[in-house]
Design goal:
elongated; 76% helix
């Protein structure tokens, strides 16, 4: 695979950025648990996505993206977001 050329990894980077800015857009910065979950999950998705873009043949990094995504999904569901 060619470096910096996989749409899946670019999608993970974009989704990580979107997750990071979500508390600002929806005004959830007062709920620190929700905000920190979004910040940390977004940063991890961006970092792993960029790492995958630089190293497209690294299979464990692909699994890491999946694990981070599942952890963010689970933590967002159990954080008790209240508008």
């Amino acid at each position: 695979m060619e470096k910096w050329n996989r749409w899946q990894d670019w999608a993970n980077v974009v989704l990580g950025v979107a997750l990071f800015i979500t508390p600002f857009v929806f005004g959830a910065t007062a709920n620190t648990t929700v905000a920190f979950t979004a910040y940390i999950g977004g940063v991890l998705l961006v970092i792993v996505g960029l790492f995958d873009l630089a190293n497209p043949n690294n299979q464990p990094a692909e699994w890491t993206e999946g694990v981070v995504g599942v952890l963010v999904f689970i933590s967002r569901g159990s954080s008790g977001f209240q508008a």
